[in-house]
Structure formats: structure tokens, C-alpha cells
Prior knowledge:
Elements: H1 3-16, H2 29-38, H3 44-57, H4 61-76, H5 82-99, H6 108-112, H7 119-130, H8 139-148, H9 156-166, H10 175-185
Helix pairs in contact: 2-7, 3-4, 4-5, 8-10
Amino acid sequence: MNKANVFEFFRRLAELNPEPVTELEYGNDYQLLVAVVLSAQSTDIGVNKATRALFREVTRPDQMVALGEEGLKEHIKTIGLFNSKAKHVIALSEILVREHGGEVPADRDALTALPGVGRKTANVVLNSAHGAETFAVDTHIFRVCNRTGLAKGKTPLAVELGLEKKVPGPFRVGAHHWLILHGRYICKARTPECWRCPVVDLCTYKPKVLEKPGKKTAP
């Protein structure tokens, strides 16, 4: 996808959704970090259901430490991999209290040093909490970037670096959100809904699905 088409790609997505935000529910930076850690291999909807009661009780890392691993598990047992996630959340909370004064660091290296926090999670937190120009490449964004030709790569890091080079200035903060929402609701894994895609003419994907499955074409 050439430079002009990349600009137009994001311009259209921005026009449809001028202020994109994560679909995870949270009240502060710490709750955001916890929600993103819990969202690994889980849906935002599932995480939100589990954290609503949790986040009414816990707003700070010291409160999470006081709740304890077993107490946390009771809140998040409906989420996949909840046992290991509970361990990570308690451990990272202890580190935040001990080493960061209970605050979430605004630094990628410091974030990725926390248990359960990888580059993708750190990028989400930096982007959503601090407005950083980061590109958190999850399965949706990886698919959209490769399928459309926006930023092809064999690994999430390769796609992230491609986005770093290609995304124009006006769209760098919102790009992560537009791409994940596009992949979640339109450019779906099994059947991309090209018939209602706002950037279909810019996309390099050849086997486009231009009619809704099941719709009969008039003779």
C-alpha cells in the first residue's frame, strides 16, 4: 500500500470514529494495566464482566495485594488462564508498590519488566494512558495489516515496525484502536465483511468477499 493510500486508509477510519478508545473498562492507569494483562487470549467483553465488581473494590496495587491471589481468582475465574493471570497481577502489584510508589511507570522497559507484561501490553498502556504513539499488534491488527497490505510482516514485531514507518503523523495515536476495531468488527478472521468495509478499494487483499454470504444475486 503506497503512502497516499495509507493516509486515505486512516483518514476514512478517523472520519467514522474521530476519538477511538479501548473497549476495556477501567478507571485509572493501574486498572488499565490489570485489564490489559487479563485480556491476553480473552475477549474484552469477558474481561469487563469479570472486572466490574473487582474494580469497585480495587483501585490501587496495594489493595490488590491485600485482596490476595485467591481473592483475585474469585473475581476472574470466568477468564481463560485465570490462575496464571492472578499470579502475575499480584506479583506486578507488589512490584508497583515496592519499586514505583504504587504508580504505573510511563516507560516501556519498566513496564515489560513487570510479570505478565509483554511488549504488546506495554504498548497498549502507553498509548491509552499516556497518548504515546505506540502500536500494540494483537491478532486482529496482525491480520488486518497483512491482509490489507498496510504493513506486512511475519511476526507481530515486524508489523509493529512497519506501522512505525508508515502511519502518518495525524493518525499515530489512534491507529492502534482503529485497526483493532476494524479487525474485530469488519475485517474478521474467517470471513472479512468486505461488502461494508470503508477502505475496501484501498485494500490489496485479492479474494474479497463483496457480497454478504447467503445473499442471492438476481439473474
